[in-house]
Amino acid sequence: MKLKQIIISILFAIFALTSVSQASSTEVPVVVEETSERKAYEPKSIGELATSFWETTGLKAIFDVNDGEMTSEPKGPAYEREMNWFESSLGRIIMIVIVFILFYLAIAKNFEPLLLIPIAFGGLLANIPLAGMGGEDGMLGIIYNMGIANEFFPLLIFMGVGAMTDFGPLLANPKTAILGGAAQFGIFGALVGAVIIGFDLQDASAISIIGGADGPTSIFIANRLAPDMLGAIAVAAYSYMALVPVIQPPIMRALTTKEERVIVMKTTRKVHRLEKLIFPIVVLMLALLILPESAPLIGAFAFGNFAKESGVVDRLSDTMQNSLINVVTIFLGLGVGSKLAADKFLVVETMGIMAIGLIAFSVGTASGVIMAKIMNKYSDEPINPLIGAAGVSAVPMSARVVSKVGSEEKPGNVLLMHAMGPNVAGVIGSAVAAGVLLSIFK
Amino acid sequence: MADEVNYVLEAFKFMLLGMGIVFLFLFILVKVVELQAKLIAKYFPEDTSKTPATPAGKIADDEQRKVAAIIAAVTEFRNNKS
């Protein structure tokens, strides 16, 4: 036992030494450069000092633009380009106003404040002139490189969502999973739409995932297929997730009749603990057999859920669904917010992405509802078509919205549990759709 | 122009493939889950009857108390409101 410990500590020591020596060998030339650049101080008049200070203020950078300020890129100075007048002055002001609108929506209207506050604040920081917050060495740039550029944060979020998800309602009434599939028409409908308005197929695929109303998946796919548009796609996906309570109810009401909306569904059966335990493994096995391309997303999701349902690692599952997901949400929000810099966000594509995203989201909701109507016609058990709207994977917002609309129509009719089935199936469905799109462009 | 039409057609093909796979995946999932439910109900039926005997019985009791408390709170709130 002791011998083992000694060997391990020696290994650690060797590892630490080698890594330190590597690090120092790479750092040395940089240090030398810095010292050689340092100039001898020359005396300056107070006027010169004031002028040089004026040069570094944000006021000058915004209102008196003459020199080429560079954009800040997390990939490093090699990717920087000179900003034009619009990007460094008016664009920034517009973006700061947009950020304040996002703050308002988050705080006063309570639209997904957990996401909007970090994203909007990241956007505010990214629009500070001259600070280079989004650059390779800036705070936002570091966060971006740490977990967004390599798709790590979305997977951690998926893990947490997996640990939070209870598949009980889905297992109790498995047929409702098909509704979660139908809502993915939003994704592919948007794909067609995006191609029609002129995006190329790969960009269109990345945009269309917004229709799944799934932030982490959108970021994951955008990173693989269209990294340039990541910011706009992530912002669109998260804003539409936040707007679920605004966008979905009118569509739901338009497509259903009063009689359909008041349908009371049978209470769900009790689900055996073993079913819940085996379920994440079953999903993962299916992913493994049919679509290994979706393995990162479904794998993280299944892991989180398995840890929860195993019942023996409560500490781990508790960390995943609380501390870990909270930490990652802060970083993910700020990192995505860095893409709200005027030079990246205020481009023509953004308008197209926002428009397509809205269409995608609406089509997804609508096709879920229509599918539920069809199922209601042909099934022996009554199905309230409203639950189809929960097929988009915004968990658990859309299930809550469905429940709210349902109880408005008929007080006491609680659809929440029934809507959770399609809702969690929607998460799986959009991960599968994402896997299909990835497999096409492999 | 001909090119663009072609792309739209491609997009529709993506849709066909994508929705096909999504439905196939979920369909197999539904079937597997139904089968699994049947198998578990068949081979581990005593598990369900055993667990409620001691701990789950208590949980259910707790749950009922919680529900009662919530209902009481809601009625109280409504009464106050009106």
TrEMBL record, chain A:
It is a multi-pass membrane protein. The keyword Protein transport does not apply. GO terms for cellular component: plasma membrane. It is found in: Cell membrane. Its EC number is 4.1.1.3. The chain crosses the membrane at residues 89-107, 114-132, 178-199, 277-303, 323-341, 353-371, 414-441. Residues 1-23 form the signal peptide. One of its GO terms (biological process) is sodium ion transport. It is an enzyme of class 4 (lyase). This is Oxaloacetate decarboxylase beta chain (EC). It comes from the Bacteria. One of its GO terms (molecular function) is lyase activity. The keyword Secreted does not apply. Keywords: Cell membrane, Ion transport, Lyase, Membrane, Signal, Sodium, Sodium transport, Translocase, Transmembrane, Transmembrane helix, Transport. It comes from uncultured Sulfurovum sp. InterPro entries: OadB_MmdB.
Automatic annotation (TrEMBL), chain B:
The chain crosses the membrane at residues 12-33. Coiled coil: none annotated. One of its GO terms (cellular component) is plasma membrane. It catalyses: oxaloacetate + 2 Na(+)(in) + H(+) = pyruvate + 2 Na(+)(out) + CO2. It is found in: Cell membrane. It is a single-pass membrane protein. This is Probable oxaloacetate decarboxylase gamma chain. Its EC number is 7.2.4.2. It comes from the Bacteria. GO terms for biological process: sodium ion export across plasma membrane. Belongs to the OadG family.
